[in-house]
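---------- Forwarded message ----------

FYI, see the Phosphonate ABC transporter, permease protein PhnE record below. Original note from H. follows.
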Amino acid sequence: MSKQVDSLNKKIPVVTTRAKATIGSILTVIIAVYIVSAIFTEAYPNEIIKGMPIVIDFIVKDLFPPNLGYADTVLTSLIETWNMAFLSTTLSAFVALPISFFAAANINKNKVFYKAFRFFLNILRTIPELILAVILVAVVGIGALAGVLALFIFSVGILAKLISETIEAIDPNPLEAIRATGGNIVQVIWYGVLPQIMPHFTSYSLYVLEINVRASVVLGFVGAGGIGLILKKQLAMFNFDNVSTIVIMTFIAVTIIDFISNRVRERLM
């Protein structure tokens, strides 16, 4: 019996006093930051609860029933939104793949170039797509092109970062075997790297597509095309029945895209 108890005690991880103190300190900091943030933003829980009846009243009286006669216009904008997301994701995938090899330490042995590419990708990811869209609208004008370019730039940073980290985590044995037989860098990548990363590459691309579909909805508010553009107009004109139609159809479209993308990614992984 004592042996069983001993073996059970070995299986159960023991939380040390130091770990408990660390967890307690982290929770204390989180609570303190939450309180300070609530004070500065005046986002008190009781105020939020007080405002809920107003929100519910707005939804019931103003948003419903939706104007189904506006569905054709919404569908056209949703197609444009999908085209923006798909085009930007496809282009960024083709650009990010070669860049990721230069940002992988096990492929790019030159530390200077490696760090330079890593720094470049960090810059691309640091600038939000909404800020990029504002700048590009000023450069190329209002429309879907600004949205596509903004999503493309941001997506390159995300995809190249994810793929480069995947490359660094691959099995090095095939690479060493190809190098040992006199294979050059192109052969190492083609026969040793690509077969190992392609499922991840496809999965990450689909994940970025999901992000871009959602982001393209918001970009319309700054004039970068898509469903957000007509949503902004209808909100400004207080046509809340049309707004309701836009929200419902956008929710359905994004849900369908996410469902299909998740299913495909599950099969790949």
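H. also flagged this: The CA atoms of residues 226 and 238 lie 19 Å apart.
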